[in-house]
Structures are given as C-alpha cells and as structure tokens.
Amino acid sequence: MFETLTNEEERGQVGIGTLIVFIAMVLVAAIAAGVLINTAGFLQTQAEATGEESTAQVTNNVDIVSSVGIDTETSPSDDTTIEQINLVLKKSPGSDPIDLTQTEIQYVGPGTVTTTQLSDGDVNLVGISGGSDILESQSDRVEVQITLAGSNDFSATSALTAGDEVEITLTTASGAQTFETLRVSDPLSTPEDL
User: Fold this and answer.
1) Which has the closest alpha carbon to 101: 85, 84, 124?
2) Is the dihedral of CA 88, 94, 96, 102 positive or negative?
3) 141-147 and 123-129 as β-strands: parallel, antiparallel, unpaired?
4) pLDDT at 191
5) In angstroms, what CA-CA distances link 153 with 81, 139, 147, 161?
6) With 90 as the cut, is the pLDDT of residue 47 above it?
7) 18: pLDDT strictly greater than 90
8) How far is residue 192's CA from residue 30's CA, in Å, rounded to a whole number?
9) Alpha carbon distance 180, 104 (integer Å)
10) CA-to-CA distance for 115 and 20, rounded, in angstroms?
C-alpha cells in the first residue's frame, strides 16, 4: 500500500520541478493581467475622449435668429439686387461659450461656393448684445455681415436677385454645424427678410 523511497534525492527534485512550473504559471498570469489592465485603461481613456468630442459636436452649436438681405446700392434705379446678407446668431441651449473667430462659414450661392473663417476680415462681426467675438450667455447676440461681390473672399459671388437661393453653413470649432437656406422673394423689398 505504501511505497518506500530508497533514494531521498529523487523526492526533492520532483518538488523543485513542480515549484518551477508553478512560479512560471504565476509569472505568465501576472504579465497577462498587466497587459489586460493597460489595455482596459487605454480603452477607457479613449472612450471618454470620444464621448466628450461627440457631446461637443452636438451641443456646441449656434442658432440663426434672423437673416436679412440688404440692398446697399444708393442708386434708386438699382432696387432689384441684394448686396449684403446679415445673420443674427446666438448660442444653442446647453452650449459652452462659442468663439466666433474659430467658426467657419460656407456660402453656396448662384454659381459660386466660398468658405472662410469669420475671423478672416471678410465678414464683419457686430455685437448686438454681449461681446462681438464670443457667445457666452444665452442672451448674447452677434450680427454677421456678409458683403457680396466685395473685395474679399466673397468677391466671386454676385449680388442676389429675386428668386435666387443661397445655402449657408456655419461650422464651430468643435465641428457642430448649422444650416440655413435663404431665398430672395419676388418682388424684392428693402430690407428683405430671407
């Protein structure tokens, strides 16, 4: 029933071999656990950053309160074109402060597409209430004045006539976009609500 060991050295060697295998398994498990913990931490950090960016794209946006086309020609015989578009902007509900100098405007009009920053000097920013560059509170209003066919990025554009349609896209620094389609009515009145 019991086996008698005649060589005591054999028993010690079996114990050391088992101990070496056990230590190797513990080391492999520790390395695998370290890799898993590092990967989980990296994925968590990346998921948090993606969530913050996605939230900013949805919430950090501007709203267009009003849009008006203006005939800036002083000649009474030229009351049939619009040479300037004025947009009044406010920040969307729940939005962080929006720096309008970091906002891009894209103008798609009859036969032309123009893209520029609101800070390039091609567009005038006029503060109505609050600051003129940053929309901080819900009551802040800024007027964006776009001069068509001027000596700026909009020089390739032409004055708008009755029946023309313009699409304007405002893109904030976080990537949120606001789209507005403006149509010139017939007959044309000055100023013209678009």
Assistant:
1) 124
2) negative
3) antiparallel
4) 58
5) 19, 30, 10, 20
6) no
7) no
8) 73
9) 14
10) 69
- For residue 127, the tally of other CB atoms under 10 A from its CB is 15
Give dist(CA 2, CA 24) in Å, integer: 32
- Does pLDDT of 126 surpass 90? no
Q: d(Cα 107, Cα 123) in Å, to the nearest integer?
A: 12
pTM of the model: 0.67
Residue 151: name the closest of 193, 122, 117 by CA.
Answer: 122
User: In this structure, which amino acid lies at residue 56?
Assistant: A
d(CA 106, CA 153): 11
Residue 96's CB is within 10 A of a number of other CB atoms, namely 14
CB 104 within 8 A of CB 117: yes
Phi, psi of 107 (to 5 degrees): -115, 120
Return the percent helix, strand and coil in the chain, to nearest 5.
Answer: 30, 35, 35
